[in-house]
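Figure caption, in words: inputs first, then the predicted bound structure.
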Amino acid sequence: MTKRSATLIIDGQPHIELPMHSGTLGHDVIDIGSLGDHNVFTYDPGFSATAACQSDITYIDGEKGVLLHRGYPIEVLAEKSDYLETCYLLFEGYLPTADQKADFEKTIRYHTMVNRSMEQFISGFRYDAHPMAMLCGLVGAMSSFYHDSLDITNQQHRTISAHRLIAKMPTMAAMCHKHFIGQPYIYPDNSLSYAENFLHMMFSTPCEDYPVHPALTRAMDRIFLLHADHEQNASTSTVRLAGSSGANPFACIAAGIAALWGPAHGGANEAVLNMLSEIGDEKNIPKFVLKAKDKNDPFRLMGFGHRVYKNHDPRATVMRESCNEVLTVLGLENDPLFKLAKKLEQFALEDDYFISKKLYPNVDFYSGIILKALGIPVEMFTGIFATGRTVGWVSHWNEMITNAYRIGRPRQLYTGPALRDFPPIEER
Ligand code: SDX
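Bound structure (s-citryldethia Coenzyme A present):
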């Protein structure tokens, strides 16, 4: 196949030939690695048009509203697969056989417990510490327990670290919740499925078990699945950048958790619920949509818009169906928040501003309503997003370390002062 290249002509000077590469799907890329030799950099602060890496894991077509995990559409996985099978697919690169799936589930169940000293660690937090603050600390601290598997050049170490992270995130997230409400920690029950176990650890008490309704378990599993991975989003890119320095996987995932916390990213699900509560009644929708459109007002419609999706977010569509199912099972069809959310979605999707800027509901718009209906407090929402996304983070980290990589070190457009003399203090 002929080698393609792009020609860059700067101020009419002799042109610069830049090689181009094509992937399986999506945009071609121009390799700008040699531009520094020509004393020029590219400039793309939000990475809107910059591919920072090559990856086989997930593909998004923002114009068509397509999301593929290792080639399988998210809608198909949500309907036919489950979270742990999707974890296997993301990390290993292929769907497991029945035996492989059983072995993987057994391995994950084997690692659900955390070291007892994690309980002392959590007890050091204020009673009302935000779960994401606690999760950042707990996951970072995991590297102090597993000295047997911190050699990142060893695939077995990378795999056991991935298994430990996938297995222990629900346990730690539930512990953060129990700390927040002042209840005893509930140990994992390995006779339960992944999502069942999480709801058990969240809502059981030593005095009585929490009977998990199958439809609610399915909804919880689907929420983890829909959050599993999403290409080079802000938190995944953070994990890759941290990993490029050779940091251990637990430190890298802790960095990803910190990046996810922001309301523009994973913190949006919590912000959606707070926004819906603030809107309160559908008669207030026009006022809030007007605020969202006002350039002088920092308010944005939380749960709307996306850097990549300029069409519907396929996860939001699945999430809305799941929301309907859960509310029906719980007899909450007339849940005021869900009704308000559907009214808000309808109003925004008919508004010229949102239409012209291609702003659609994203994964966070409906997830919070399901989580609230499941009885999960709003401060836990982003921690649940982090739990589901851990497999995506660790899969991208593993993919990077497995292939050739260099430490990430972006350049800049310097706009500060040129060289100047140091004035003595009496002359300042
Ligand atoms: C996630 O990257 C991922 O894949 C993330 C994620 C994942 O799975 O990892 O999908 C998860 O983070 C989903 C997004 C959750 N965040 C929110 O719901 C917060 C609200 N949304 C916005 O903050 C915003 O839409 C972002 C952050 C999601 C995207 O921001 P961009 O790509 O930088 O878009 P932008 O700010 O350049 O917006 C383009 C225009 C702007 O207007 P102009 O300056 O062109 O006049 O659209 C406007 C924005 O003001 N706009 C909004 C809006 N989102 C964008 N206006 C009102 N309400 C909004 N929600």
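The pocket of s-citryldethia Coenzyme A is lined by residues 46, 230, 233, 264-266, 268, 292, 300-308, 357, 359, 362-364 (CB under 6 Å).
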